[in-house]
């Protein structure tokens, strides 16, 4: 698998996050996803989908500042610096974040199995 395929999937993920497109997110996230957010809270796939589905999380701007992709046979790791704004639980948020995502090639395609997010100080 090439880096460009994973970069394209990351682009689909970005668009789905902006649109809260639960169908696309459902297709990109593994059923056993583990996501650690910037506060240290652990999210499941259902948690993430429901945050989008019910408007708990609204991302209004998500600008990719930098992204690297490393592919290893049937897995890949992405490291993304993003600037975003929106709201979470009705509270406005904005900032610069660093995401690390682990993609794995499954029988049904490439899926995110693990992710972590950190807030960048400046």
UniProtKB/TrEMBL annotation:
Highest taxon in the source lineage: Bacteria
Domain DUF4440: 6-112
Name of this protein: Cytochrome P450 oxidoreductase
Organism, as annotated: Caballeronia mineralivorans PML1(12)
């Amino acid at each position: 698998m090439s880096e460009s395929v994973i970069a394209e999937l990351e682009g689909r993920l970005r668009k789905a996050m902006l649109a809260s497109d639960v169908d696309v997110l459902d297709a990109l996230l593994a059923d056993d996803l583990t996501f650690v957010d910037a506060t240290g809270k652990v999210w499941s796939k259902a948690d993430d989908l429901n945050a989008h589905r019910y408007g708990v999380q609204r991302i209004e701007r998500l600008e990719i500042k930098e992204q690297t992709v490393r592919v290893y046979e049937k897995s890949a790791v992405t490291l993304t610096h993003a600037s975003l704004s929106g709201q979470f639980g009705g509270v406005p948020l904005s900032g610069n974040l660093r995401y690390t995502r682990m993609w794995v090639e499954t029988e049904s395609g490439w899926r995110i199995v693990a992710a972590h997010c950190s807030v960048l100080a400046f």
